[in-house]
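Have a close read of this protein, sequence plus C-alpha cells, and explain what the C-alpha cells say about the fold. Thanks in advance:
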Amino acid sequence: MKRIKLFIIAIIFLGSNTFAQITVTDADLIGVGDIIYQGWDTTGIPSVINVGNAGANQTWDFSSLQASDWDTTEFISPAGTPYANMYPNANLCFKDDFEYYYLNKSTSGVELVGVDNLPVNMLFLPLPLTYGLTYLDGPNTIMDSSMENMFIPDSLAPFISLSPLLDKIDSLNIRITLTNNFNVDAWGDVTIPIGTYASLRINAEETTATSWSAYCSNSGGLGGGWYAVPQQLLPGETETVNHYQWWTNDASVKFIVADLEVDSAGNVIAASFLTIPQTSAVTELPEDAITIFPIPTIYQLNIEANFTDLATYKMYNMHGDLILENTFTKNTKVDLNNIAKGTYLLNVSNEKGSITKKIIVE
C-alpha cells in the first residue's frame, strides 16, 4: 500500500513539473496606458550572471543584478501623434528620446512598423510563445537609399562593372537588411531583484547586413546599370547581436522580465530587467533640457543645452566603464574617432539634476 501511495505521489509530482510550462499571448503583453520600468546594470555585471542551460524546468537567479540606470516607457495610442497617418496598422506607440516608435500588436506577434517618418519592417516578438517555438523573420530591407557618388573615382567604373565601355559612376546605393531568428529554448523560473516569475526563455538573434552597389554608365550615352561594389572599395558588413530574453504571462509584468546580451563567446555584456519606479535624490532633468545629435553617429556627437549652467557629460559603455568625461557650458562637440562601435550611455548633469540618454556609435 505504501508503495502505491509513493508511486501516485511521484506521478503527480512528475506531471506537475512536466506540464508547468506557460504560454504567452498578445493578451499577456503591454497595451495602451501601460507604463514599463526597466533597470540597466551598467556598473559591472556580476560573474554569477549567465544565461544557463536550454531545456525544461530550469531556474535562473539574476537577483544580484543592480540597476544603475532606469528606463521608463509609457505606451500610448498612435492617434494624435505626429506620424500616425503613415502607419494605419499601428495600434501602440511610445516615445524615446524625442523619437516616436510605432508598433502593431496582434495575435501573431508584436511588430515595429516605424520610427518617426521612417517605415520599419521588424518583428519584435512572435506570438503565441510556447516552449520549442522557432521562428525566422527576414531578411527584411530596413534601408534602401541612393545618393550621388562622391566617394569612388570614375576611373574604377570598368573595375566595378567588368565592362571597359562604362567609364562613369553616377550614384551609389546602400541596402541594409535585418534578419531575426527566435528560438524558445527553455522554460522555468527566473528570479530578478523584485521577484520570481514563471517564464519562457527566447534566444533572439538579430543579424544586420549592409551592402553597396554603384550605377555605372558611359559618358557617351551608351547606357549603364547597377553593379555590386567590391568589398575592397566599400566594405559591406554583417553584424549579429545575440539576446536571451525571459517572458512571462504574469499579469503584473506585460513586458520582458529580463534581457541579457551576450558576445560571441557567450559572455553577458549587457543586462536589463523589470523594476519598479525609482526615487532618487538627484532630480531628473526634463527631456528637452538637452539636444544630442546625430544618433546614430560615427565621428562626432553634438550636445546642446537649453541652460547656461556649467554642465558635465560622462559617457559609459554597457559594462559601466567611464569612457569620456568633460565639462561644458551651453554646447559642446564630443570627438568619437577613437570610440569603438556599439551602444553607450551619455549622462549630462548640472547643479539642478541629470539626464541619461542612449548613444549608438556606428
